Records
---
Amino acid sequence: MFESAEAGHRVDKERFRREERELRAELLMAQNTLLRSEKPFQVLLLVSGVDGAGKSETIAQLHEWMDPRFLLTCAFEAGRNPAEAGRPPMWRYWQSLPPRGRIGIFAGSWYSRPIARRLAGKLARTALDARLEEINRFEAMLVNEGALVLKLWFHLSRKGQAVRLRRLERDPRTAWRVTRETWARTRSYNALQKVAAHVLRVTNTAAAPWTIVDGSDDNYRNLCVGRLLLDALRERLAAPPAPAVVAPVPRPAIDARNVLSALDLGCRLDDRAYARELPRWQGRLAELVRRRAFAGRSLILAFEGMDAAGKGGAIRRVTAALDPRNFRVVPIAAPTDEESAQPYLWRFWRHIPGAGRVAIFDRSWYGRVLVERIEGFCSEADWLRAYAEINDFEHELVAAGAVVLKFWLQIDPDEQLRRFEAREAESYKRFKITPDDWRNRDKWSAYQQAAVDMIDRTSTGRAPWIPVEANDKNFARVKILKAVCKHLEDALDKD
Amino acid sequence: MFESAEAGHRVDKERFRREERELRAELLMAQNTLLRSEKPFQVLLLVSGVDGAGKSETIAQLHEWMDPRFLLTCAFEAGRNPAEAGRPPMWRYWQSLPPRGRIGIFAGSWYSRPIARRLAGKLARTALDARLEEINRFEAMLVNEGALVLKLWFHLSRKGQAVRLRRLERDPRTAWRVTRETWARTRSYNALQKVAAHVLRVTNTAAAPWTIVDGSDDNYRNLCVGRLLLDALRERLAAPPAPAVVAPVPRPAIDARNVLSALDLGCRLDDRAYARELPRWQGRLAELVRRRAFAGRSLILAFEGMDAAGKGGAIRRVTAALDPRNFRVVPIAAPTDEESAQPYLWRFWRHIPGAGRVAIFDRSWYGRVLVERIEGFCSEADWLRAYAEINDFEHELVAAGAVVLKFWLQIDPDEQLRRFEAREAESYKRFKITPDDWRNRDKWSAYQQAAVDMIDRTSTGRAPWIPVEANDKNFARVKILKAVCKHLEDALDKD
């Protein structure tokens, strides 16, 4: 794998000067074309490799060549910081994604920790492979969202590494970079090579392939990376990527029976029973979130349903049991422009709660396969791949300790009409009815089919959908509270 | 101060039920009017007071009454978390401001830490007063930016506190809230009353007055806070606040001599001297930011100047000396919609570097008194008050350990014209010239006067302006690097 990177590449000073001038002008031009493009995309340049192979030198060179105002360089500490507690490992990288039109340079990336932990013997081979598979899916999602992902591995032979580190040590300007720990790490050169070769092989995907760069000669390495970036930018600016291969669109069952039609919308709970049950389950929930075990977990609830299905009222019955300092209700409307400049899941990642906290989404990431699908806000390929991307997302949340529950509040069209009319009659609820609501009513069956497809494809054992018979508000609210208590209790009891 | 809050207020269950129904509907209506307003404003509700006075109960009640999706409740830990290292104390609150149209409830606020530290004997009276004066200026800025700031102090008599805490302890649903520490704190009741009375008196400003609320009776307290919020919302929705009193607009000096006209734009540095000086000062800077002392400080550079004054080139000569993993260049263009929904300084606060880091602003918060003043993007009152607000902002940065330097790059109109023409000739720089640039040229003297006013009013000993003769790029770049080194070295030597 690393053979060609040990072929003794060298570029002399004169050739470097000659080529650098042109390369720089072209990189600047490409960077600006990207920034001003009508369809800008995000560029991620991952810089990894062995100690002394010139990672920081090349990053500094790119900053000299290009416009540093539109480069975002991120470095990540080896350990986890307190803000990451209770959040998935990928959370820190989501926080650092460059917006479309910018180039993000990752000095250290989602590869660093798995490699380091494997080397330290803290990660079994199977666990490493599971992590790499997650990374592959994450990168494929980025690429499908339009990102250009370039992954560089800077290589040195064992001897070459010793030569370069001694040279860095001799130069007073760079001596500070070679520490006792650096030399200690060189002793595990062979082990690192072995792990790296495996990681690179498994993650060398068509969507986001690796490039191995010989790190021994500064001029060669810098020109090589500059050209690689330039070519990739130009190619991508000239031709947008082909749309992803599309799975067949889900078809409704031939007998029109499905998870929603099977619900009994006649379910009711009378006011007396409600007055008894509601405080009972609110009390239980209040107790559960204050258990010591919850301090290390989090709770994420997503509410979906037709307009006027009662999402807001149900959410208020849940929050009544919680301490306002520990929960946040996140209403999902049109994305802000900062959110539109990112992959669609980004705006949900930014609200993922930390340990001991609750986030309640009033509408959610499922908008992708509901409103965006039906209104054509995204392509068919986009919403078709979203099912798996969403499952991955929720899997990451659950793996980090979150309890994830999704509620679909089901009403029938007559009930919706009654509620619309009641809202228009009640002065302080009138604002809730907009022309959009009446328009969406016409698309009732399309929304129903989208909801069925969604539940069938994304209800997993670890992050289940709970369909709620919601024609009767009392019944719906108590059913939701009970479900939250039950799943939360199960999760805490397992700890 | 607290007398009326001990008058034995009580509201019985029946009156509460009767008034609650109407209050709730009106609060919801006001919340929605705010959200849908053409000129929404941010609402900050600060909830402070003694232990057991019902702070969380009332916050929970507001969540029940109003739409929790548009309430943002923030609680703050007592200590500083690692992300705050090197950043001013107000940074955490800036991160938590609600956008316009939303209501932010602060359980604990910028008052908590000064009061706690004063009580613990860690803050001298004079230091406390200095802190309170900063808070007053901060709140006045928020109010001038359109915010509605409501400050509540929940009071209990010493005896009343003991009664309430014992009641909380008896109820299994609330017993967890009364800990040994709570009882320990009650022993310093008198000391807290004394400090609180002083803090409330000093910060009881016309822009953001305090309301003292008797905490002993739940019904009374909740109705009282609900009404207060409702009345304030209604009043503010009905009539926008009167514009702030405006200081006289600065007048140019009668002899047209000023800090910029005094510059000798003939200053030059020939290429040989430049080739010698540039690496010398870059090397010095590289060494300075790697000193151990810098790990606890930060460096903030702001670059302003006419178009084509050479800001970008100068910034690149500075960044060449830095490790890309430790600096960020922040280009300032039009605000995003998330930024527009906040006070104007918010979008700079979000880029304030942590300890050991460098932030370089290509254009800055001074846009307020330059482009926004000249193009009329803000009112005269807005840019006139901005001088003092900016001085406060920079003072906070410096007090937190930042070295803050501001560079004005001065060129003359002939030199600008030469550069515009050169850019249009060079293919990869052509994008840099826009019709706006030619338009701004016509406003040359207005920009010059704005720059003079700005420098005269915001160049302080701790955050100085450095006017740079920039007709010659060599000279300008070296002067800037030397100034950065000198000020940074002085600051580090003082440690």
---
Amino acid sequence: MEKKIITISREFGSGGRTVGRMVADKLGIPFYDKELVDQIAVESGFAPKFVEENGEHSPGSSLFSYAFAPQGVPGVMNGLSTADFLWNIQCSVILQLAEKGPCVIVGRNADYILKDREDALHTFIFADMAFRAERIVKRYGESDKSPETRLQEKDKRRRVNYQHYTGRTWGQAQNYNICLDTGVLGIEQSADIICQAVMRSREPAKESEE
Amino acid sequence: MEKKIITISREFGSGGRTVGRMVADKLGIPFYDKELVDQIAVESGFAPKFVEENGEHSPGSSLFSYAFAPQGVPGVMNGLSTADFLWNIQCSVILQLAEKGPCVIVGRNADYILKDREDALHTFIFADMAFRAERIVKRYGESDKSPETRLQEKDKRRRVNYQHYTGRTWGQAQNYNICLDTGVLGIEQSADIICQAVMRSREPAKESEE
């Protein structure tokens, strides 16, 4: 079955977003990351920054009180918590994007949301702490917290959010089709492996058996 | 860092052993599966069949009573349970094999036992239930249990054994460097991906950054 939709789940700092962009460039298909945030923002009435900061975070977080209903759209949340409201819109936006045609989607539990699409290839990108710590400092600069603490906090939020909305374990290999350690393989090779898998999925089925 | 030792952890029926043999053949390096069992048998005094059936199974299994001390080697178990005794020998054999030179090692928690070797590439091979069920029936025939039950039981034993001796979660992507779904990628492509990663690890480091 030809794989047309590629989802990239990733540990913070692993380079998963870069892998996704490289895959999209090499395959010549759209790349949804910020675009996804913007569309969820439009449909939810929340500011893009709020969506970006909270869409993958723990639903138990204090940020997710009902008090955060978007201005100007009273009543649209139908009694849902902010987190559940955002989740519903996120599902709907991701399902619509996948319907539009081949693309790469980064984060936002897209592997789960698109789990029933046979033309989707689900990937998970991760790396050891040292590799990720160096990357986030280079990319986002220093902060008052150690890079390790920042990584642990962000990963924990993504893990809790994933567990809450999918009932599955974040980073469990069987939730994906390909999991790659960029710390060992490098970002470029990881993108190559995913592209090759997509390209081979276009060939007629052929399998050697023992 | 050049990868010389490849460990293959695998779900039952996923074709992981075949992937391992293909990788060993393509790279021209030894393949340890049955050979590992035989060496553990020699060093432990247990029959190879006993080692094969129990070396990756739950330490709480009824098979693992102290009554199973090997004949002719009284006292060598030093008060260890059969499971712990086998585990110690398994660790020692795997560490020795890795010292001997490049190789592919299938199963037996080798990813954990060799986790500190920087020249080791750790892989996990898995597939969906339908793919694996078809394979085990083709390979091992029917039995009085459904293929799904046989898969679940065997996976559970491996999972419990892994958890008990390593404190880690079996199949959690971050324990490995590459995890591949043979149900989607196929056995041959999975072997190719691993071979390519080994061959690229021999090239001088080169990494593009965003």
